[in-house]
Amino acid sequence: MAKEKPKEDKSSFDAVPWSCTDMKLLLISLLSLCSLATIFQFFPSTSGFSTTVITSCFPKLASVSHNLSSSPPDVHPLREEQLGSDSVVRRAFNPVGSAAYLFVQMGAYRGGSNNFAIVGLASKPLHVFAKPQFWCEWQPHGGPGGDSNSTFASGYSILPDWGYGRVYTVVVVNCTFPVDVGLDGSGGQLVVHATTGGGGGDRAVQTEERFVAVEEAPGSVNASAFSAPPKYDYLYCGSSLYGDLSPQRIREWMAYHARLFGERSHFVFHDAGGVHPGVMEVLRPWVEKGIVTVQDIREQERFDGYYHNQFLVVNDCLHRYKFMAKWIFFFDVDEFIYLAPKTNLDSLLASLSPYPQFTMEQMPMSSKLCRSTDHGKTARMWGIEKMVYRDVKRRVRRDRKYAIQPRSAFATGVHMSQNVAGRSLHKTDGRIKYFHYHGTIAARRDPCEEFVNATAVTYDGTPYVLDETLRRVAGAVRRFEHKMIGSRLARTRQ
């Protein structure tokens, strides 16, 4: 007889639905309780009940709550909106933190025995809506220390790119002390106190930052350098170089102007991403000869200023080389300076020495038109040989470029300086001008697109005339380059 199968315990089976129901109710109750306890955290309470429940239900939330409760006391208060008597709702905006830096220093340089220039960037909105101020403090080394040992002066700020700045604007802070500082051989440091000055509804807010702008080792300052003859007659301060520049165009520009400026000259290029290996290959022979200095300024891209911080770069160059050159030239690498026939640069600038600044007229050249007789040969020609048509459209305001006597300047710009001591000259009677090959410096191909056989032509609505002024000097420039650096650049690419 088969063994009977044991009967299932129906009582325990029937109890299962009741246990689930009870569990659901329990979970719902716990969830409601924990949610309620969480909400209680946002209301002032002295009860430890909610904290206990949150700690047990949500230990991570309890940790966050603990961190928030330990915040420093200087929490920004909330400003509420208000309903005015005119029934207008006046909304409140609650600013926290900083939109841009109070000051970003690029360089700081002596301007004399008692003078310094600090070149940098600052928040443009701050300078539009507030009145930032700068104070200068000279702290000598080796003294007793403290304010009693320091010399103070107010800082005068110059904004040379006003109207061009973006998030940041260029600020040149001039510190002129009432007495000579740091000339006794003790050394010292220049400390700048920068304040926000308040603005709009924040006029009562005054935030101050202090930073060391200049550090001078004992015995490092030679006061005679401020009056000694400069090392160079002419120095070129280049604007920010960026983009995919043509090595061949840079090659032509460098050889042309090294010949024009002569042996007592120097060229400073600022690499904002444009000095790629091909361009550096072109400049390296000149760097090795001590004629060229390349500065890497790629970090400036962190700060949103006008045209890769062009104004910042030229002002830094002005003050960095203030006592090293008689004249500093400011123009671009797609522009070629030209002197009238039988004009010598030394004698010309000697005649212009009464003026701390002079500007040069622009000769705009076509970047597309070439002569029909050059068809098939332009690949072997330099740009100044084949681009020979000049724009002669009338009643057009052309940009000017300029040269400056740096010891007479406090700040500068891209097309001219408005901060010089003395009168500027804007009419040089054609003795010095510059040819502008706009749109060619980054062209990595032969620029000739149209070949014409005429001395005058209208192209795309613009009148042009044949102008072979620079074509006639190209051969001499080639020979000069070969004399200076040999044939190292024979295979330079476009």
SSE layout:
Elements: H1 10-40, H2 49-57, H3 59-69, E1 82-83, E2 89-90, E3 104-110, E4 115-123, H4 124-129, E5 133-140, E6 151-158, E7 168-176, E8 188-195, E9 208-216, E10 232-241, H5 247-261, E11 265-271, H6 277-288, E12 292-296, H7 310-320, E13 325-330, E14 335-339, H8 345-351, E15 357-364, E16 369-371, H9 383-386, E17 389-391, E18 401-404, E19 409-411, E20 419-420, E21 424-425, E22 432-436, E23 450-452, E24 456-459, E25 462-466, H10 474-485
Parallel strand pairs: 10-11, 10-13, 11-12, 15-21, 15-22, 16-23
Antiparallel strand pairs: 1-2, 3-4, 4-7, 5-6, 5-8, 6-7, 8-9, 13-18, 14-22, 15-18, 17-25, 19-20, 24-25
Helix pairs in contact: 1-2, 2-3, 5-6, 5-10
Organism: Musa troglodytarum (fe'i banana)
Membrane topology: Single-pass membrane protein
GO molecular function, one term: glycosyltransferase activity
Description:
The structure is a single chain. The N and C termini lie far apart (106 Å). With 494 residues, the protein is of the alpha+beta class. Strands 10, 11, 12, 13, 14, 15, 18, 21 and 22 form a nine-stranded mixed β-sheet that branches. A seven-stranded antiparallel β-sheet has the order 3-4-7-6-5-8-9. Helix content is 24%, strand content 28%. Helix 1 (10-40) crosses helix 2, helix 5 (247-261) runs parallel beside helix 6 and helix 5 packs across helix 10. The protein is built from ten helices and 25 strands. It has two domains: 104-222, Immunoglobulin-like; 229-485, Spore Coat Polysaccharide Biosynthesis Protein SpsA, Chain A (Alpha-Beta Complex). It is found in: Membrane. Keywords: Glycosyltransferase, Membrane, Transferase, Transmembrane, Transmembrane helix. Its main location: membrane.
